[in-house]
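Final report, closing paragraph on structural work. Over the funding period we assembled a curated collection of sequence-structure pairs, and we close with a single example.
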Amino acid sequence: MRALVQRVTEAAVTVDDELVGSIGEGLCAFIGVTHDDTPADARKLAAKLSKLRVFRDDEDRMNRSVLDIGGEILVVSQFTLYGDTSSGNRPGYSGAARPEVAEPLIDLVADALVQLGVGIAAGRFRADMDVRLLNQGPVTLLLEVGGTPAG
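Its predicted structure, as stored:
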């Protein structure tokens, strides 16, 4: 699994002009799934997201997690994180898991975050989403756990 994570002041996702999820201060996590990712990988990613120390402490150092600050996480499925641009100009997506494999794992990440005590909001799987966020810092990280892409 891959997660492109941005520290945000706020973030929201809409589908067909309907607000489906929004958060205040926290993280926006765009999550992609590849073929051999497992439920254990989803739980590991959730734990990593909940404990990722990218928020400032009293000494102005990035030393606090989303749990420490009482922040939230916006979870957005993003199969294009497994886009392969090594050949030609059109990305290939053979490294991305099929929707029937990816959706339950994305849901498991969200559920695991809730179990860890993180407030979440989420996009809508298989929807054409508009994501609006205010990246703070800017802080953007790429996290990877588990499998490797096929293809």
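The chain has a mean pLDDT of 95. The longest strand covers residues 129-144. We thank the funder for supporting this effort.
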